[in-house]
């Protein structure tokens, strides 16, 4: 699904990502972990076209997407969520999902959607209802999204990302701010999403979530890849323990 080759990103001389290479196999849940500032969000930003790399290559389905703009990459089937909640204030859950669809439509369709009282066309509403149903959120469709508990808002953002029927979903710390019960629900959601054929790249600090959902884990530290492998290997890797995980208790 994804391959990055010798990817680097420098910000004013700071190497945020330094010669990183790895692959995300189709149908897998792959996690990208590492300490604060390791470069995880920078990597997601490059893969989703927020900015291009300083050097290196990004391939989606074996096709070079390096430097493509985010709308082109979204059109190829990659969607993301952000590290902080970015829902529209004062709009319902349903409206938040429908607004997310706007950029996938033609200009004339967009204009008709923007007419007052008409956020959504019938196919959009059907799709939104199906997505909310799949995440057990149907009963919240009419609620103001930003009034919901934080953990629920984060799940609404995942729902919004699913509106475009992505084949590849990138989640930037979806469990941040969630309580244990919400995180357990999130684990089920992510598995269910993967089971519908969506490949997942997960950035997360919640190690119990990472170790239970991941097929593979890539570890970054100061912009460099320091380890890669299945959870059992990563948990035992001395360099990963020293730089990030700490000794098991
Ligand atoms: N747009 C930017 N301009 C300048 N520096 C940036 C920019 N984005 C990120 N950085 C820097 O790049 C480094 C990597 O940041 P990044 O946000 O990718 O880390 P992260 O692994 O996502 O951390 P966290 O776990 O805290 O979210 C940091 O030193 C950060 O300050
Ligand atoms: Mg980050």
What does this protein look like?
The chain is α/β, with parallel strands linked by helices. It folds into 2 domains: 1-77 and 167-249, P-loop containing nucleotide triphosphate hydrolases (Rossmann fold, 3-Layer(aba) Sandwich); 89-165, no CATH class. The chain has 10 helices and 10 strands. The protein has helices at 40-47, 70-75, 93-101, 107-114, 122-134, 150-162, 180-195, 207-213, 231-236, 238-245; strands spanning 2-11, 14-24, 29-33, 55-60, 63-64, 78-80, 168-172, 199-203, 216-221, 224-229. The chain has a 6-stranded mixed β-sheet, sandwiched between helices. Strands 2-1-4-5 form a 4-stranded antiparallel β-sheet, with helices on one face. Strand 9 and strand 10 (224-229) form a beta hairpin. Helix 3 (93-101) packs across helix 5 (122-134) and helix 3 runs parallel beside helix 6. The mean pLDDT is 91. The structure holds adenosine-5'-triphosphate and magnesium ion. Magnesium ion binds next to helix 1.
């Amino acid at each position: 699904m994804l391959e990055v080759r010798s990817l680097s990103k420098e910000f004013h001389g700071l190497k945020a990502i330094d010669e990183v290479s790895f692959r995300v196999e189709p149908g897998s849940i792959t996690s990208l972990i590492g300490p604060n500032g390791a470069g995880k969000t920078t990597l997601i930003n490059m893969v989703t076209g927020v900015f291009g790399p300083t050097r290196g290559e990004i391939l989606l389905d074996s096709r070079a997407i390096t430097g493509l703009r985010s709308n082109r990459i979204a059109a190829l089937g990659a969607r993301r969520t952000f590290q902080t909640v970015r829902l529209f204030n004062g709009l319902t859950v349903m409206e938040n999902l429908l607004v997310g669809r706007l950029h996938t439509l033609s200009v004339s369709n967009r204009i008709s959607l923007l007419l007052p009282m008409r956020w959504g066309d019938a196919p959009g509403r059907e799709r939104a209802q199906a997505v909310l149903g799949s995440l057990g959120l149907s009963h919240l469709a009419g609620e103001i999204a930003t009034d919901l508990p934080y953990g629920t808002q984060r799940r609404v953002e995942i729902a919004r990302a699913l509106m475009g029927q992505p084949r590849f979903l990138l989640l930037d710390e979806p469990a941040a701010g969630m309580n244990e019960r919400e995180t357990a629900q999130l684990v089920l959601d992510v598995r269910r999403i993967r089971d519908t054929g969506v490949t997942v790249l997960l950035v997360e600090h919640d190690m119990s979530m990472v170790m239970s959902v991941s097929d593979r884990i890539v570890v970054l530290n100061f912009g460099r890849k320091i380890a890669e492998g299945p959870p059992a290997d990563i948990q035992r890797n001395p360099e990963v323990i020293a730089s990030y995980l700490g000794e098991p208790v």
